[in-house]
Amino acid sequence: MRPRTLTLIAATGAALLACAALPANATAGPASAQEGSVSAADLLAKVTSCSQISNGKYRTDDETSATVPVCGKNGAVFWKADMDIDCDGQRTSKCNEDTDPWYQDDTAFHQSDGKPLRADSLPYVVVPSSSSTWNYGSAGIKGGGVVAVIYRNKVEYAVVGDTGPTKIIGEASYATAKALGIDPDPENGGTDSGVTYILFKNSQVSPIESHSAAVNLGDRLAQEFIRNN
Fold first, then answer.
1. Cis geometry, peptide bond prior to residue 101 (ω within 30 degrees of 0)
2. Among 115, 132, 136, 149, whose CB has the most other CB atoms within 10 angstroms?
């Protein structure tokens, strides 16, 4: 992840199809933007108030003020922010130096074969790098942890796949945005607000590149989250 210096254009209301034809050796992407048995409304009802656990707040972009806290709940942490598009990792036709001015060919966490993650087919979320503001590891968040990403009453399960600047929050992979109907263009896409990220503590998808494993584990943890909050 890298800081954005341009204001991102809000996504249009038209929902994009979440699945696309992929090469035979590609990781399968999300099949639906409403995944699992727990509704967006039920999850959102549990995050209406914030018990702040971060030592300060984050910006959503370089040019914005710091307004986003990291909040704590039983079994999870969450924040409400924008979504910038991360296209880092494996170089593909959708994610490369030509499509993304900020492109980097690596991610903080890697697939089981040691390769970087593939942003255009794997739903993943970026967390701020550890700092005095907040240390994600100390909060029980780890690479491959499950995240419920909610936008416009849709739920998409993702993994913690990359780390970003210490003062900015609100970024997810191309595949995450596409599944939620957000413009996934890494330069001009994303949305300025309305995204809720619920990260389940001490969870880990194995292998990290298996989206179906993230959905199965995420649905179980979401059910526990509803019961325990």
1. no
2. 149
169 pLDDT exceeds 60? Answer: yes
d(CA 82, CA 78) in angstroms, rounded, equals: 13
CB neighbours of 1 closer than 8 A, spacing ≥ 6? 84, 86, 88, 126, 162, 163, 164, 165, 171
DSSP 156-220: EEEEEEEEE-SSB--EEEHHHHHHTT----TTT-SEEEEEEEEEETT---SSTT-HHHHHHHHHH
Residue 185: closest CA among 67, 5, 3, 16 = 16
Question: Region 154-179: what's the mean pLDDT?
Answer: 98
Q: What is the dihedral of CA 41, 9, 192, 95, to 10 degrees?
A: 80
Residue pLDDT, tens place only, 75-90:
999 999 999 999 999 9
Q: How far apart are CA 123 and CA 104, in angstroms?
A: 17
* Closest among 103, 111, 102, 104 to 26, alpha carbons compared: 111
The sign of the torsion formed by the CA atoms of 66, 170, 78, 202 equals negative
Q: How far apart are CA 157 and CA 123, in angstroms?
A: 7
Q: What's the CA gap between 81 and 36, in Å, rounded?
A: 23
Residue among 131, 170, 167 at smallest CA distance from 151: 170
Q: Which two tokens stand for residue 206?
A: 């194995």
